[in-house]
Write a structure and sequence with these properties.
This protein is α+β, with helices and mostly antiparallel strands and 92 residues long. It has a single domain, classed as Lrp/AsnC effector binding domain/regulation of amino acid metabolism (RAM) domain (Alpha-Beta Plaits). Helix content is 26%, strand content 33%. It contains three helices and four strands. It has helices spanning 15-23, 49-56, 80-86, and strands at 2-10, 28-33, 40-46, 66-73. Strands 2-3-1-4 form a four-stranded antiparallel sheet. The longest helix has 9 residues, at 15-23. The chain is globular and about 35 Å long. The relative contact order is 0.27.
Amino acid sequence: MITAIVFVQAETARIPEVASAIAALDGVSEVYSVTGQIDLIALVRVRNHEDIAAVVSDKLNKVEGVVDTETHIAYRAYSRHDLEAAFSIGLD
């Protein structure tokens, strides 16, 4: 599974509608409204790299109200569970 984190700038008045439209796309697992320089963060989870282009370039970028995107492809995931396993010293 490949995960891409997509930063989305949207028309300010349309952020809720843009977020809902993006969340409805196949391949998008989550959309967050955030503070800062960007308006939304979308998590795209697909089987291969070509699918990222299909989701982001062919669908997400064409959602009405999307002004700009920046895509980051994750190459390693860290979670609390993973970190606990990595640093476990075997004590129960």
